[in-house]
Amino acid sequence: MPYVNIKITNEGATKEQKAELIKGVTELLQRVLNKNPQTTVVVIDEVETDNWGIGGESVTNRRLQGK
Amino acid sequence: MPYVNIKITNEGATKEQKAELIKGVTELLQRVLNKNPQTTVVVIDEVETDNWGIGGESVTNRRLQGK
Amino acid sequence: MPYVNIKITNEGATKEQKAELIKGVTELLQRVLNKNPQTTVVVIDEVETDNWGIGGESVTNRRLQGK
Amino acid sequence: MPYVNIKITNEGATKEQKAELIKGVTELLQRVLNKNPQTTVVVIDEVETDNWGIGGESVTNRRLQGK
Amino acid sequence: MPYVNIKITNEGATKEQKAELIKGVTELLQRVLNKNPQTTVVVIDEVETDNWGIGGESVTNRRLQGK
Amino acid sequence: MPYVNIKITNEGATKEQKAELIKGVTELLQRVLNKNPQTTVVVIDEVETDNWGIGGESVTNRRLQGK
């Protein structure tokens, strides 16, 4: 019954990589807390780099500076 | 003053259906908890089926298997 | 498979009222979008009035002013 | 280490305005709570007006009525 | 830079189990998407069973029925 | 109409500091995007240090190591 939300920047994660995240986090919750995988929900949000900030700057600007 | 976030897979909900969800959940909060509808905020997120997992698999893969 | 998060201020909603919100929003998603109620997840967050702001003030301060 | 999520309607915020929000909220957390800006994360979600409700109606419908 | 939110019912997860979830999901993001673990943020919410619904009922009520 | 969620660790933010965050972020959205402060909603979540992870460890463990 757990609900997991993963937010990453939108920088080319493939369908296969996202399927691997879903499988991995569902297994982790089963292994650590014995949660039923059938009702574990995972939602992945891919966020534009203009809309993600860290260190007071957008990721877009950080990438331009080579950070 | 409540805030409601509804997440569904992006599979063709119409503008009218989304308006009905907004109206319905706002009325529910007014009826059950006497919340002021004027300040009830509802945000609907439509999530790609590649990005939604249940049972350890993406909804895209489940649809391909007829689940 | 929908996921719904309802945030309200922590001002005495009863167990019965919360059960009614869960039932009501699950039925709404079934009626409007034909979503399977068995996999609809609802999470209610009750937030302290010091931690909820509207109009630039906390709800605690608004209540003191009779708003 | 704070995490901030800002949700606004998708009505033309520019890249520069979003950078200003990121900078402003990061500085606010540093000033008020002495939080380290280097690990403050900000995510901005721009939500379609069909998917945002207030007062029981979508913002799309409110705009049509001149609200 | 990813942000992960894990929501589970408040039913006795230990400090050690929560540390294992944090470690596990951080490693998963590093392995699958090469994300920097130093800036991966994980937040775990433990939700009262009265406030978590599935199948239109609270988890509290489901537990009473032996579901 | 914006909605802002601020998550911080539960390490003693006062009522006054939280009121200052609410005021500050509401003013920021008015200044940068001309958003109406009367309908700007801010929710602050204070998260236990056992439940917040960064760098693959809980904040509780990091504090013990003097990080």
TrEMBL record, chains A, B, C, D, E, F:
Organism whose genome encodes this protein: Lacibacter cauensis
Annotated InterPro entries: 4-OT (IPR018191), 4-OT-like_dom (IPR004370), Tautomerase/MIF_sf (IPR014347)
Protein name from the UniProt record: Tautomerase
Gene Ontology MF, one: isomerase activity
Coiled coil: none
Top EC category: isomerase
Pfam family, any one: Tautomerase
Claim: Nucleotide-binding is one of the keywords in the record: no
E.C. number: 5.3.2.-
Catalytic site positions: P2
Family according to the record: Belongs to the 4-oxalocrotonate tautomerase family.
4-oxalocrotonate tautomerase-like domain location: 2-61
Organism domain of life: Bacteria
Keywords attached to this entry: Isomerase
